[in-house]
User: Fold this.
Amino acid sequence: MSVESTAKHPIPAGFEDALLKPADYSRMYEESVSDPDAFWGREGKRLDWIHPYSVVKNADFTMGKVSIKWFEDGILNASVNCIDRHLPTRANQTAIIFEPDDPNAPARHITYAELSDKVNRLANVLLSQGVMRGDRVVIYMPMIPEAAYAMLACARIGAIHSIVFAGFSPDALANRINDCGAKLVITADTAPRGGRRTALKSNADAALLHCSDRVRCLVVKHTGDQTTWIDGRDVDVLRLMDEVSPDCPPRPMNAEDPLFILYTSGSTGKPKGVVHSTGGYLVYAAMTHQYVFDYKDGDIFWCTADVGWVTGHSYIVYGPLANGATTVMFEGVPTWPDAGRFWAVCDKHKVNQFYTAPTAIRSLMGQGPEWVDKYDLSSLRVLGTVGEPINPEAWVWYDHHVGKGRCPIVDTWWQTETGGHMITSIPGAIETKPGSATLPFFGVSPEVLDAQTGEIQKGNGVEGVLAIAESWPGQMRTVWGDHQRFMETYFQQYPGYYFTGDGCRRDEDGFYWITGRVDDVINVSGHRMGTAEVESALVAHEKVAEAAVVGYPHQLKGQGIYAYVTLMNGVEPSDDLRKELEIWVRTEIGPIAKPDLIQWAPGLPKTRSGKIMRRILRKIAENDYGSLGDISTLAEPAVVDELIENRMNRI
Ligand code: 6R9
Assistant:
């Protein structure tokens, strides 16, 4: 059966009263692309503006003068939209349900009134530490409510937050602190996850050795574990929050003022600081959250991502809270204390919308359906996936065992750069096909381009690379401190388009199938990583002369990391050295970057100009060495035979 011929799954019964029906989708999509000013002019009103906007869209994708602005003369504050405006009607409604790592510890229900109190206090603490409008604040936190307070406190005073995933190493943290010139880091003592603890504060201590002496460190004493303490630099933030006023006037911000920076991996060099705006981003996060999850007042929404990734920004914090929702924050992992944890939490909190990654579904699928069947999942109404293509087997398992065939699955394709969902199903409005992200969201104009010529592939049943022809409000605005890099990365290769870096197929029904990255970015368990980052970590080791890293298909992670390593002259390969390199990469970048397979490579296949032929390395890593294509341009074709002979992946 070819993928194109996959039959559509009809919209399940019970979605007749969904927010959007099929006819609404067609009508609204049509207007959103033919008259974006009218469409988004109306949608922008879902936020409260201090001064309304008069201009809606102002965007130019022309290489050399790329400029993206939405609602540019509007004034608003993101924290007001996520908190204050809900207080008259929702003060006692739960804003955040915090489910701790330890299943026996009590969950916390934080009301909008309490959220307001905490965010105002934390904002006052930031002010007292000298943080001003436009200053950068790095957040390096576990999945605890204080992470959300920190984001919103920054937004309240107009500071720009940059969250660094708590699984990243001190080096990665230091690089990000330095790149954005942060004035302050907010962290916690330790982070419990899956019964183990990560020493966040001591990681921050190690990072700060490489940063300016002026960077302060605000510490949330979460577990009470002992940490080192540097008087004058380290601040007990919870204690200070008790001392300051619970009232901090929100700073009026321009719609185009940055709300946050989030670093993400690209195909080359160091991670890019993706900059998102206040107005356009928030409109887009709120709107996609409402429509794509069919979110209705009173629903309990759970996105299992970490706030360190864009998914956590848009669908744990900003989207849900802008909509006055109840959002679940989960500190733990899907498989601890057992493989039933996700479903236990869904049952316990009567979750209505559940949003997770294919890698989690695959790993739980492997544990058997009995873990799901133990729990009452009748509250679930909509299921979502994000992060990588979902294989049809996992989709069908999710649909059958978790959704019991009653819950539409929204497979949401989007990126850190896009701010919110771009190609996705909508419950009640769009039918689904297992493995397809289906159709574009409002205002999104996807085009399939020929990878070589850049020509538009018109009609259905076409394949190529995915580009977007028009701006949408959630689009990133620039790379922090490097607008040139922004233009070169996204607008140079296919002039006039935003280039996504993904390959894609549009099937006979006009449905989109994302086929994965076409650049040197790999996707490990839904986490983006540049192969260049792992390579530069490896070559930083004294025994490594050269390294080339590629992705290969991995049953659970989607893609695994395959590293070809050439050792320095005279260094003998050994299993101990392999272990040492694995630990080295973990320390340099973080646990998610640890190579799954390391192959010793006396030589790497290179062109005569010295360029590593990754295409060949990818094939060997995929155990598909029969079809290497033309290798005649190689400087030394013989190295290929050696690599094939000693390949590590023989499945
Ligand atoms: C939100 C997020 C973006 C890359 C993207 C693509 C892959 C994300 C997907 C998907 C197929 C989906 N991706 N969602 N591929 N189907 N539903 O994941 O952002 O970390 O920046 O990654 O992830 O390759 O280009 P980010």
Observations:
- Residues 264, 309-311, 386-389, 411-416, 437, 500-502, 514, 516-517, 523, 528 surround 6R9 (CB under 6 Å).
- The mean pLDDT is 95.
- Residues 112-128 form the longest helix (17 residues).
- The chain is about 30% helix and 20% strand.
